[in-house]
């Protein structure tokens, strides 16, 4: 079985004292652990992370440098020792109005800086209720992804499940993940098979095994439950396909 990938997204949480949580995260056999703290903690997190725990950013600008007050480039993240970046999170798509074209430009910038990149997609509750969830995700994939599969990870995050304590049924998760796999194969050919598809949205230690047990779920993108080493590692343990 291929390794699972469990990624923590700290969002706008954490101060210097929180680095102790990252220092306490220990890699598990069978599970890759990645953590995206806020920009202010990326350098510190790189310094304290144990072997096998990769640190990344939650966003990047599409330009390498320039007059973009308050923004951070992929090259700056790489310079701090980051290994990956998350782009297109639904909170950025809604709070900052990011479009698929902007997300795609960020993906290209991240790859040019040598970062792996997690591209987030997912439908709103109204879109799911209207029966357009697959069409929405298809449009996001088509508009956000680059021409090659190298370094890509997809995170399927239904917007209505993020931070709400609600999750899709196992059947809904597996149907969407297999739909995404089909689209990745269409876009990238055989290389689409190697792209991990993470599920994100209210993953907790007590539901991780079921959610990550679905076909084509390669791991999880975890928000709230990634803020402490204890709950993040409990999710990683539940995700482990080959404990011991
Ligand atoms: C997220 O921020 O990507 C996320 C999935 O958050 P939560 O786990 O808190 O729902």
C-alpha geometry: globular
The major pleated sheet works out as: 8 strands, parallel, barrel
Give the oligomeric state of the chains in this entry, treating copies of one chain as homo and distinct chains as hetero.
Answer: single chain
- How far is the first residue's CA from the last residue's CA? 14 Å
For the secondary structure, the number of strands is 8
Q: Give the integer mean of the pLDDT values.
A: 96
Would you give the CATH topology? TIM Barrel
Instruction: Encode the helix/strand succession as letters.
Output: EHEHEHEHHEHHEHEHEH
Percent range for β-strand residues? 15-25%
What can you see in these coordinates?
The chain has 244 residues and is α/β, with parallel strands linked by helices. It has a single domain (4-239), classed as TIM Barrel (Alpha-Beta Barrel), CATH 3.20.20.70. Helices cover 38% and strands 17% of the residues. The chain is built from 10 helices and 8 strands. It has helices at residues 19-23, 39-48, 74-79, 90-95, 100-112, 125-129, 133-144, 170-188, 208-212, 229-239; strands at residues 4-9, 31-36, 53-57, 84-87, 116-121, 152-156, 196-200, 219-222. An 8-stranded parallel barrel has the order 1-2-3-4-5-6-7-8, surrounded by 5 helices. α8 (170-188) links the parallel β6 (152-156) and β7. The longest helix has 19 residues, at 170-188.
